[in-house]
Amino acid sequence: MKYMENIVLRGEKISFSYDGVKVLKDCSFSVGNRDFAAVVGSNGAGKSTLLKICLGLLKPDQGNIWLFENSIDKFEEWDKIGYVPQRIMNLNLGFPATVEEVVSAPLHTSKKLKNLTKNEKKNLTDKSLEAVGMSQYRNRLIGRLSAGQQQRIFIAKALVSSPQLLFLDEPTTGIDNKTEEDFYKLIYKLNKDDGITIVMVTHDYTDIKSMVNRVIQISDGGISDKIHKDEDGDKK
Amino acid sequence: MMEILQYEFMQRAFIAGIMVAITCPLIGIFIVLKRLSMIGDTLSHASLAGIAAGMLWGFYPFWGALIFTLIGAVAIEKLRKTFSKYAEISNSIILSAGIGIAVVMIGLAKGFNTDLMGYMFGSIAAVSSKDIYIMGILSVIIILSVIVLHKKLFYIAFDEEGAQVSGVSVNFLNMYLTILTGLTVVVSMRIVGIFMVSSMLVVPVAAAIQTGQGFIKTTAISVIFALISVIFGLVLSYYFDIAPGGTIVLLSVGILVGVLFIKALRKRK
Ligand SMILES: Nc1ncnc2c1ncn2[C@@H]1O[C@H](COP(=O)(O)OP(=O)(O)O)[C@@H](O)[C@H]1O
Ligand SMILES: [Mg+2]
């Protein structure tokens, strides 16, 4: 397989079920370096499940995930991965945490980054907040921001460890159209200018069709092995 | 007020009370934010079984409480995995087991005595030097653990999956937090009493959250609220000769109501 060297994420015949209910069957896919990949499919198709498998949060029944050419169970450089979960709706709005505390959280937990000085951590946090245009809110409580702003903070948190691969799960749910447009511009910029590989779940990808160069389609019924790639067309 | 400190038992009560006021909110903040407020009740009922066992078989009740809360803590975490869809069930099971064992043993020991009442409702006169010594060791373990782990515990409480992706050992730390909660119950039971330990874990933190600060400030404020409740609670309970647990918890509820009242006034302006 000659295109292997640039693959940052690969799923190999993934099957997964919740308590015996099959959600994914024999799913194979790959995402190349600097790709903008959309994971699409109807509600309940298994998009979030697939993302969680890629992140090691769920173990597949069969098959394997490869991250940066390492089998996921051997993979250790989690700083390279950012994750924005599909959770803006269940965020506890009363949670007593400032924007700065939220965004800097990964800096204190990653093996590589936790030894940075206080100042270095602060700089990385600042840079991340700046990237999403939220610098002036650093001391605000997370619950006092609008849904769109909170989503930006979650992106900033995912960006703080300078990831090369960013997973987003329906990041624009509950956000108005204008904010959504700005938000897509931001993601597009991260992809094009900063070279971050994007894997984004969306139930409706008409809005982002022009930015995306790879589509991972999970078909109805929750079981799929369909993948098409717009650019290199190497569908098996 | 200072003259009450000339009594040695009051000195011990204050030292014990201050340990409670520091450890309860430090653990309580994570318990509350993870929506596990029930766990304090569960583990305190497990500790009651341990105390009853100690009294029945004549060994130091603290050891009984320590062993039973630790077993309870591990069992809750294990059961939580088994009943993953109904997390609260694991609490109910352990609570039932704890209270059941306690009642049977109290029956076998031919009923209640003042010693047992002291553990249930808190006591200022009953705190011994040995109690203080053990409470001190447990408090140091709790405080050091929180100092070392608070960033990770915060991340787990805020976003468990995100923390796991960042390489935090979520399963281990959830178990460890439950064990620390068990130790906090044992530290607190002497002064505030088994029935009110859970309130000390939750109420000062609930009041502090209402002040609308970030995580570190909220934690600090909850310790201050707990210290105020404990110190004034002990003084009141000395002068009116009542069990300290009730006065301490009522004072912390009073602080919560006060904070809510001030917040409501501010909003109207
Ligand atoms: N924790 C879970 N336990 C059992 N079933 C689940 C769980 N999470 C999701 N499912 C089911 O798996 C299917 C796929 O879910 P999900 O991956 O969230 O879909 P999507 O993100 O595409 O909407 C759905 O039918 C959903 O009901
Ligand atoms: Mg989903």
Q: What features would you describe in this structure?
A:
The complex is a heterodimer of chains A (236) and B (269). With 236 residues, chain A is α/β, with parallel strands linked by helices. Chain A has one domain: 3-Layer(aba) Sandwich (Rossmann fold). Chain A contains five helices and ten strands, in the order βββαβββαααβαβββ. Chain A has helices spanning 47-54, 99-109, 118-131, 147-159, 177-192; strands at 7-18, 21-32, 36-40, 62-67, 70-71, 81-84, 165-169, 197-201, 214-217, 227-228. In chain A, the strands form two sheets. In chain A, strands 6-7-8-3-9-10 form a six-stranded mixed β-sheet, sandwiched between helices. A four-stranded antiparallel β-sheet of chain A has the order 2-1-4-5, covered by helices on one side. In chain A, strand 7, helix 5 (177-192) and strand 8 (197-201) form a beta-alpha-beta unit. The longest helix of chain A has 16 residues, at 177-192. Chain B has a single domain (8-259), classed as Orthogonal Bundle (ABC transporter involved in vitamin B12 uptake, BtuC). The model of chain B has no long low-confidence stretch (mean pLDDT 93). The chains are: A alpha/beta (236), B mainly alpha (269). The A-B interface holds A 52, 55-57, 76, 78, 81, 83, 85, 87, 92, 94-98, 100-102, 105-106, 108-111, 139, 141, 157-158, 161 and B 33, 151-152, 154-155, 158-159, 161-168, 208-209, 212-218. The site of adenosine-5'-diphosphate has 11 residues of chain A, from helix 1. Chain A: Belongs to the ABC transporter superfamily. Chain A: It comes from Lutispora thermophila DSM 19022. Chain A: This is Zinc transport system ATP-binding protein. Chain A: GO terms for molecular function: ATP binding; ATP hydrolysis activity.
